[in-house]
């Protein structure tokens, strides 16, 4: 029924970032490099956390899942984007487009809530250190993780179900490098007011709820930090939080800029640039941010490298 409602369309055309032939090949190698760094960085961090028993703590449990999410949703988007640079007609089937849309949204929404869970973990570690092992028990961490992926599934299902009810016109050109909600709605030949309202509400929840919880966590964290007497203690607490603050700012800033504005106020070409941040740049930077600014990760990496060198 959903496919029939889509007005006979069997495929969409994804023109990519630009139609200028002179920059296609340089952009291909640039984003191929980004993707290789993303894959190596995130899989490397996953492997490092898995192999080192000292990193088997709630903080690194969530970081492990953040790296897994970054790797997955970058892999959902980037290979198809790379195809647009080297192929004359970068097409994707209707079913493939809806599948890409679902998994992209699943992992993006999951990322917003995993960042929220990480903020809560930081709050407990700094504000209630004596109760940390009890509050962040394996059972609690697992429940939080189930909530993260549950919200990801709910958000992806809501958006994809709405999109499968849209009637598309004969024009199957999606002005983007991926199947995303707003570019697909531009291909509709009927009013998309209800769909855009649904996008605003669902994205408002998926961005608003984690943002509020992260904000509250950091207000309490900062309040606790300012009550620490030693300069070294305050410095260590700030250092612990700084990586997460950078990751949150990049992810939520670019996501809110893309989705929480009416489409009439945000040209799609400008939206493409904003999308690049949370689909390409953020997954690449997260493992670098959390490893280069994290003493435990650097120590664990040195141990493994020294062990391999000795062997």
TrEMBL record:
Membrane topology: Multi-pass membrane protein
Keyword flag Oxidoreductase: no
Main location, first listed in the record: membrane
Coiled-coil regions listed: none
Name of a matching Pfam family: 7tm_4
Transmembrane segments: 27-49, 61-82, 94-118, 197-225, 237-260, 275-292
Keyword annotations from UniProtKB, A to Z: Cell membrane, G-protein coupled receptor, Glycoprotein, Membrane, Olfaction, Receptor, Sensory transduction, Transducer, Transmembrane, Transmembrane helix
Domain of life according to the entry: Eukaryota
GO cellular component: plasma membrane
Family recorded in the similarity comment: Belongs to the G-protein coupled receptor 1 family.
Protein name: OR8B8 isoform 1
Organism lineage string: Eukaryota, Metazoa, Chordata, Craniata, Vertebrata
The encoding gene: OR8B8
